[in-house]
């Protein structure tokens, strides 16, 4: 009997990494893995799950923009509910991150726990362990993933702003060949 392989939280980062890829040709699994801090085999498995879910076009590494936007807008907060914790030092995300910080008061910051972080706030378990390195490795993916966190943890206003900003970013992403 065939098993159902379901999406994993890190698949969101891989999909966003592919959406943010700036070259006109699709990245190799190794190149995308290095950018996201994942192994090539992990990226390959993630791409297979994303294709099966319809978030990537079949037999390619090109994001299905409409499906990805729909999933991020309506499904991600239910599939991957936020795990909030104590106040810690970390990397700002959600309404405290680069996509929304200018719009909202960051006095109640949300952060991915990281001892070398720059902001103190309520901890949010990131969608994948390497997320805290994204500001240096892949700033555009960091921005997009923090917008996804805005959808996952935000109140109505914050979710609405995150959805709009993420929609603009995904719509402006280049098509991969």
Descriptive overview:
Strands 1, 2 and 3 form a three-stranded mixed beta sheet that branches. The model has no long low-confidence stretch (mean pLDDT 92). The relative contact order is 0.19. The chain starts with 8 loop residues before the first helix and ends in a 5-residue tail after the last helix. With 177 residues, it is mainly α. It is built from eight helices and three strands. Helix 1 crosses helix 2, helix 1 packs across helix 7 and helix 4 runs antiparallel to helix 8. The radius of gyration is 15 Å and the shape is globular.
Summarize the structure.
The protein is mainly alpha-helical. The chain contains 8 helices and 3 strands, in the order αααααβββααα.
Oligomer: single chain
**What's the shape?**
globular
Strand content: 5-15%
Q: Which series of helices and strands comes N to C?
A: HHHHHEEEHHH
Work out the helicity level.
40-55%
State the major sheet. Answer: 3 strands, mixed
What is the alpha-carbon Rg in Å?
A: 15 Å
Nearest-integer average pLDDT: 92
Unreliable residue stretches? none
